[in-house]
């Protein structure tokens, strides 16, 4: 079992997210935001401003006239895309760290997994017959943030035991984490998101991203279903590099009004787009 | 660990706690016994198993049982049982116990105390009229370490976020560094003590409401029957039993009647109206 106070301490020691990112996420959680508010917030962050301008003038926009201002860039990309760029750029430096105590080989694995999950979440939200909160991409990108802190306590022996708990113990990775560590990455991720003062829908979306039916709020459940399926898509594409194992996702597929064929198409589509999305955040 | 070690370890655990370790749980033994091995300087799990087999050291045995039986839990776990407690069971008992003005509640296998404290919060929040009644909450667990932690009423940020609504957290807990400390009134309203449910020399506290959730399914069927029979004997007429979602009274031949008014609550009624 991992000492909870140590985990909480480590969570509190994490660098805060940039103010611009938190403000943008809070803006989008409210019903009355404006493009100008997004622009004003992005303008607080010079690095983000540069990134937005670069994205607006990227190869994808090559047929139209270049843009020179943050406002023009935001109009071209759309506010949602700007927020994704902001959160992704901020999260990338956390997620690209080594994943376990004694295995530095997979530095990018968690980041690739997270971006793949976010891409899948976006597409699922568009395809689903259920109303999905617009926070789906953000929650998906952040859903495994708890594994960052947890990884500090996972040596090869503990990882092997977790693997055996899943295969021999016939349980999902979250249950295995609780059984062996006394904590799971979802609740730790929620703690981190709360520490970063993110909106409650994002905090709870992370908390229940593998256990949507444990949530009482219908929006949180919808987010949980989306992330469960998106995580499964990412697991297919990225493999076991960063994943702790596969979760059962078919109930979520059904509740979202999707089917097996859609799942396969998602895997193909996200697989094609992943490298491009990763380069957007560099 | 070798198959023989696992068999011997599983036998030890069953005899001392009732818990039946399923096959392929060697990983759990290796994980849970790591701190015990470190403390007792065992270099291998086989060494630990040999010591349990050959030396009979009560302190080692108690620690092994302690580390194997302690499981994480949450406040208001599964919600539904506590809804049944608030909306049906307590009102029913207030009606039937009006002349005595006594209600006894037992939370068995209470782990770190979240269940009995959840019960206490419901009483404080929703039943102020019981202030002049004699309402007792007894909470027991096989693990002395769990009882000590439960008695202290101190929880980590992670534990406090498990099932506890923010308004109740802010009302009944105070932040202290990284931890949350329970309100003294609530802590004092629960009596904690060690109790091994399979030890016939340890009597069960008599009760009008008993919570025995998510523990019986670890026992083999015959032991479940024995424990449920003893529980039944400890229950007053027209009293209530709460089991966990994985527990069952099927095939135990006991006289518990499922409470249909609150499906999925795991609540059963014993005798009387």
Give a structural overview.
The complex is a heterodimer of chains A (282) and B (273). With 282 residues, chain A is mostly helical. Chain A is built from 16 helices and no strands. In chain A, helix 3 (35-42) runs parallel beside helix 6 (79-95), helix 4 (46-56) crosses helix 5 (70-77) and helix 13 (200-207) crosses helix 14. Chain A starts with a helix and ends with a helix. The mean pLDDT of chain A is 87. Chain B has 273 residues and is α/β, with parallel strands linked by helices. Chain B is built from eleven helices and ten strands. In chain B, the strands form two sheets. Chain B has a seven-stranded mixed beta sheet. A three-stranded antiparallel beta sheet of chain B has the order 3-5-4. In chain B, helix 2 (26-40) packs across helix 4. The N and C termini of chain B lie far apart (53 Å).
Morphology of chain B: globular
Largest sheet entry of chain A: none
Structural class of chain B: alpha/beta
What are the low-pLDDT stretches of chain A, counting only 5+ consecutive residues below 50?
Answer: none
- Which chain pair shows the most residues in contact? A-B, 25 and 17 residues
Quaternary structure type: heterodimer
Helical stretch count of chain B? Answer: 11
Mean pLDDT of chain B: 93
Share in helix of chain B: 40-55%
Distance between the termini of chain A: 37 Å
- Order of helical and strand elements of chain B: HHHHHEHEHEHHEEHEEHEEE
Q: Which secondary structure elements does this structure contain, and how are they paired or packed?
A:
The complex is a heterodimer of chains A (282) and B (273).
Chain A: H1 4-13, H2 19-29, H3 35-42, H4 46-56, H5 70-77, H6 79-95, H7 109-127, H8 136-142, H9 146-151, H10 156-167, H11 173-181, H12 185-195, H13 200-207, H14 218-238, H15 250-255, H16 260-280
Helix pairs in contact in A: 1-12, 2-3, 2-6, 3-5, 3-6, 4-5, 6-8, 7-8, 7-14, 7-16, 8-13, 10-11, 12-13, 13-14, 14-16
Chain B: H1 3-17, H2 26-40, H3 45-54, H4 58-69, H5 80-96, E1 102-107, H6 114-126, E2 134-141, H7 144-152, E3 154-156, H8 157-160, H9 166-172, E4 173-176, E5 179-182, H10 184-188, E6 190-194, E7 207-212, H11 221-234, E8 235-243, E9 256-258, E10 267-270
Helix pairs in contact in B: 1-3, 2-4
